[in-house]
Write a structure and sequence with these properties.
homodimer; Rossmann fold; 2 domains; six-stranded parallel sheet; three-stranded mixed sheet; 13% strand
């Protein structure tokens, strides 16, 4: 295992740019090398001093890295793993910040050399905005960060990544990739799909009468379509199950509304309210949100 | 038609309390009489100086009113109309701030005397909070307010109410009760039902892993269950149709996810994003929200 002197961030969008800025702020001795596929992104990142150095060669970007972080769309990971495999220094830690974790683990096992350590990361941070110009060095403060590990994952690499994300302000939790993808299908991918369905179920002409409730409920659907398509396509079975559960709940509500069954409707509304209030309380207790 | 000297607000929750405070601020010559069903609410409202006078007799509260505003749950309206019918001064305007408008119009036609003027109001303001302690005199600033009218509605009463809500900071729009209930089933009641379904489709244990997206998407489900049950139960057919459209959208998304049809998924996500961006832009142009 190598001492942390250079971090390479691959992909300089909102997340990659924010990681880079946060590392520069938290680890003053660490060099951050940033790589982005598009020249225009590299130009912007360079102008904004997002990293110590922004480079235009993927393979060279990792040649001296102690930690490599993939922050590009999930569907680019497999090829990037293959491309950098030969250039990764022995003992280097590789991670990614993709929103699904089963496939990244599989691709890492298939493509990365045995001489490096892969751990999955998923910092629960971001916004509906995209692009390096929205990068912020405090994006990870008080955010949860899930590290995904399997039996094959090196324990020392997990410890180092735990320290790394904690230093950036995250609360770190461990789980398996399968557990992660099941849970996040439900608490993240399903809300996204429902926000999309809600908007698409509305006529354009009617939307101008929408109030604050609609605006909040649909916010996440303003996120980048290609990144979210990747998320959904790398977690198809879990997302499909989540949609089935949501449809079942909608059908139940519809039935009770049609039957004008007031007590059942109140019960379902109260159950939702109580669960949400519990969630908010626990987030406040855990300091993830400020009351 | 009477000159506006006394406004009576029936129901002193978040909305009624805020109307009362806003009237006191905007119409310095107008007396506001507040009535609440529960003694504890009247006590709180009195202590907070929510109205010029808080009274404990519904019938007496309207005896000298030029404008009566019902801000209690929708399902109380019919009885309140009957109870106050005999005490309303001739020429008085009666309105309500219920979130559905077909039934209030029907009840008004059946229960109110011909000597008073009924118009429906629906200010698109509020929050998931409830209770007079959350009342604010600026709740209606930049909010849309729908006035609902039928062929029978007095034009002069509409003009006076238009002036009234505008003075409180609202942007007033007119429509029929049927149009209102169709549109708000879609842009307000459906998002509520979907937020409830989303939470109830999630296991309690998984919710602690939820991020900001989930919290925003589910916010409205923290609203008061009994008030929302009223809303859903007074707009059953439109809400059921909205749920059907949402389910159809969810099924379409599920199908394309299962088929791994990337281009279709991107298309649906982009359509939602574009529609929402349009909505946000129009709200900013109309000064309803500040960018």
């Amino acid at each position: 295992m190598r001492h942390l002197r250079q971090v390479t961030v691959i992909g300089l969008g909102l997340l990659g740019g924010s990681i880079s800025l946060a590392v520069l702020r938290s680890f003053t001795q660490v060099k951050v090398v940033g790589y982005a596929h598009r020249p225009s992104t590299r130009d912007k990142a360079g102008r904004l001093s997002i990293a110590t150095q922004v480079v235009d060669n993927l393979v060279e970007s990792v040649a001296e890295a102690d930690l490599v972080i993939l922050a590009s769309p999930i569907c680019t990971f497999e090829k990037i793993f293959s491309d950098i495999a030969g250039a990764l220094p022995s003992g280097c830690i590789v991670t990614d910040v993709g929103s699904t974790k089963m496939l990244p683990h599989r691709w890492a096992a298939e493509r990365l050399p045995k001489s490096v350590y892969y751990v999955g990361s998923h910092p629960i941070a971001g916004s509906e905005q995209r692009g390096v110009e929205f990068a912020r060095d405090d994006l990870f403060e008080r955010a949860m960060c899930i590290l995904t590990t399997t039996k094959a994952t090196d324990r020392r690499a997990v410890q180092i990544l735990n320290g790394f994300w904690s230093e950036l302000g995250c609360f770190v939790q461990l789980m398996t990739p399968a557990e992660h993808d099941r849970i996040y299908a439900s608490v993240s991918h399903l809300p996204h799909v429902m926000a999309v369905a809600l908007i698409n179920a509305n006529r354009r002409a009617d939307l101008k009468f929408a109030g604050k409730g609609f605006i909040d409920t649909s916010r996440i659907a303003s996120g980048p379509a290609n990144i979210w398509a990747d998320v959904l396509l790398t977690n198809t079975r879990n997302v499909a199950k989540g949609i089935d559960r949501a449809i079942a709940e909608l059908m139940r509500l519809k039935k009770e509304i049609r039957n004008e069954n007031r007590s059942q409707i109140v019960k379902m509304l109260e159950s939702a309210r109580d669960k949400r209030n519990e969630l908010i309380s626990s987030k406040i207790t855990n300091k993830e949100i400020i009351s």
